[in-house]
Queue: 2 jobs
Job 1
Amino acid sequence: MMSGFHGLFSVGSIAGPACMAVLLGAGASPLAATLCVTAGITAAVAVAAPNLLPYGSESGGPVFALPRGVVLFIGALCFIAFLAEGAMVDWSAVFLTSVRGMDLAYAGLGYATFALTMTMGRLTGDRIRQRLGGREIVIFGGLCAAVGFAIATLVPVWQAVLLGYAFVGVGCANIVPVLYTSAGRQTVLPEHVAVPAITTLGYAGILVGPAAIGFVAHAASLSVAFLCLTVLLAGVAASGHLLRV
């Protein structure tokens, strides 16, 4: 079920901006639109609350944990996957406007393309994993995302950039769900310790990664930064056969 959970997370990342755009387009003030979305979230939590699990892991687990061994390896792969996702969130539109010369009004098409393909990939990911296997998903996903960044960077037209972003979305869609599943199959750390450790490293990719891409872009160019992601994602694909998934 892990890919489906992440898929609904992606649905939320699309639905939130879409709701704000509709409210603002209808003439609502930013404050009123924010309050409407807040009310929707509150209502959703109230409906879901009776069905939330009243318990956690049988033995409990730390909020923060330092990874080691294969857990560190899995966490590093999560870091790269989240780094690619963070690059799409923060830099996809910048690349389209500053490197490919797209009009600012259409720059959001880049992230929209990525988010759409990622959401579709995650909502179908559980069935795909049952047919192909987790290891194959990591290998294919890493290669697909690497090819996507390469196309976006090396083919000098904006249409190719959108195609590349679509490949990145498909490739990154199910890497993290599979890696989270693999946390329960390693024996170095108990699962209730391994999951916080992997989460710590993974989400560091979203927090630190976009800033690191900015530093690389400032020192060289945004194209060079994207090509660095190509190499890292190719490394994820090459590491896939080492996973126990």
Job 2
Amino acid sequence: MTKNTKVNAAILIIGNEILSGRTQDTNTSTIALWLNSIGVKVNEVRIILDVEDIIVDTVNQLRKNNDYVFTTGGIGPTHDDITAQSISKAFNLEYEIHKEAFKILEGYYKIGEFNEGRQKMVWMPRNANLILNPTSGAPGFNVENVFCLPGVPSILKSMLGGLQNRIVGGKPILSHTISLRTVESEIAKSLTDVQNDNKDLEIGSYPFFQAGKLGVSIVLRSEDQSKIDKCSQEIFNFINKKKIEIVDR
């Protein structure tokens, strides 16, 4: 891949607790923002159950259709953390103790604390590459283009920096937001006209409620700042004609 290549990724959130609503997913936003900053566009996000066959089938599908796949959750010490085992099956690799991971955790815990439950975290696909964990010791791992990260948001965030040199992205994806005191129906036609005139730039509109009033944020996304500037000017032109108020969020 070169810097001018379109690079894409999928995010796979694994965990019954997300689907049940007990835990709120913030990892998608964290990973997507980081990937955008290094020129990787997220094409797809899926949330699935901790079920081996579902994980295997989904990973195999996503890794064929995307340059990178990032999974979160399911690599801890509990009985339902089955991601590592499932990734082994997806790649037809032996599921075994990773010697380097074992040494890392053996040194991390005090004598007697590295018990059988915690040793489950060093079982990985054979020859997996480790993703070091500066927060809690237990490493993630990757096999080919599939990168497996923990589900705890603060730990996941701390591990992304260590992946910087392993991910080859394109141009960083830039964004610009214009927030208006209006409703979507008032600007829909004008915004469609602007989008038709700027087909190689992504435009999104997102309603918000602030200080008791409705508003719409228009978000422009592109690899090219000049295209964002041009599109912004066209939006400002119809905003001025309609006398719509711009608000600071």
